[in-house]
Amino acid sequence: MMFLLVIGLLVISTYMHTTESCCCMPEKFELHEYVEDIFTWPSAMIQTGYANISFDLEVKKSVFFFYDVKLNGKDVPTPTYLFDHSSGFLYVYDLRSKYCKKMPIGRMNPVCVPANQSTDTTHLGAAKEMLSVKTYQSTAGNQTTSTTVTKEKCYLISSELNDSEYPTSLRKQFYGTTLGIKDMSVFKIPAICKKIFWNTQEIPEVSRRVFHPFYL
Ligand SMILES: *[C@@H]1O[C@H](CO)[C@@H](O)[C@H](O)[C@H]1NC(C)=O
Ligand SMILES: *[C@@H]1O[C@H](CO)[C@@H](O)[C@H](O)[C@H]1NC(C)=O
Ligand SMILES: *[C@@H]1O[C@H](CO)[C@@H](O)[C@H](O)[C@H]1NC(C)=O
Ligand SMILES: *[C@@H]1O[C@H](CO)[C@@H](O)[C@H](O)[C@H]1NC(C)=O
């Protein structure tokens, strides 16, 4: 159960290849993310958390450093997810508990906003500090997603996903976005990951789905 929550935080988009995309994030960027995941089934739960994310389509790597993840207000130690598509593996590790799992992953996709409907442009802020944003909506199966991005460049601002069958509401806010990767060492595979054998059995949810670092 806990693991499912973490994956829910993380982001998987099973339908993004079947719906139209309106626009995509740049090839290299870093941002911070605040996530709020509300479950009403099988019991009422709220999970919140932050992630520092680096994404580089050119070297085919992305990494998610989670922190301050809380489930119903209690701390949930959350590992780092390092997607190394250049070698075809995902590393899930926690340096404090000296834990690392390695499992095969598929190809890397750009971070694109799925959309088959968009609302009008709206403006955040005022006067010289005004930002034009657009909100896109997409429905696939039982999931409805709404994503707000900057109108000009498609930089992520927020997203919300509801699932009618599996009652959950996943909201994300993106902030502090910068272009490029400041320090490539974020993609370094930690030494503890070099000793282990890879294991696909323990995290079946990962290998069964199409993995994508943003739940858009
Ligand atoms: C996340 O980013 C902030 C601001 O750059 C930094 O202070 C913090 O140490 C980072 N946390 C992790 C877990 O990477
Ligand atoms: C968006 O596309 C999906 C899948 O193609 C479809 O099921 C859904 O009805 C479409 N929604 C709208 C608003 O067009
Ligand atoms: C949508 O939810 C219904 C039950 O409410 C379920 O039978 C159906 O398989 C779900 N569809 C998809 C695409 O997940
Ligand atoms: C999700 O559900 C909430 C509460 O019912 C609603 O206000 C919101 O508009 C929904 N968002 C999407 C993307 O369907």
What would your notes on this structure say?
- The longest helix is centred in the first third of the chain and has 9 residues, at 2-10.
- The chain contains two helices and 15 strands.
- It has 216 residues and is mainly beta.
- Helix content is 6%, strand content 48%.
- A hairpin with a 2-residue loop joins strand 12 (131-140) and strand 13 (143-150).
- Strands 2, 3, 4, 5, 6, 7, 8, 10, 11, 12, 13, 14 and 15 form a 13-stranded antiparallel sheet that branches. Strands 1-9 form a two-stranded antiparallel sheet.
- The protein has one domain: Clam (outer membrane lipoprotein receptor (LolB), chain A).
- One 2-acetamido-2-deoxy-beta-D-glucopyranose is lined by residues 144-146, 160, 162, 169.
- The site of one 2-acetamido-2-deoxy-beta-D-glucopyranose has 3 residues, from loops.
- Keywords: Signal.
Keywords:
disordered C terminus, 216 residues, Ependymin, 15 strands, mainly beta, binds 2-acetamido-2-deoxy-beta-D-glucopyranose, outer membrane lipoprotein receptor (LolB), chain A, two-stranded antiparallel sheet, 13-stranded antiparallel sheet, disordered N terminus, single chain, signal
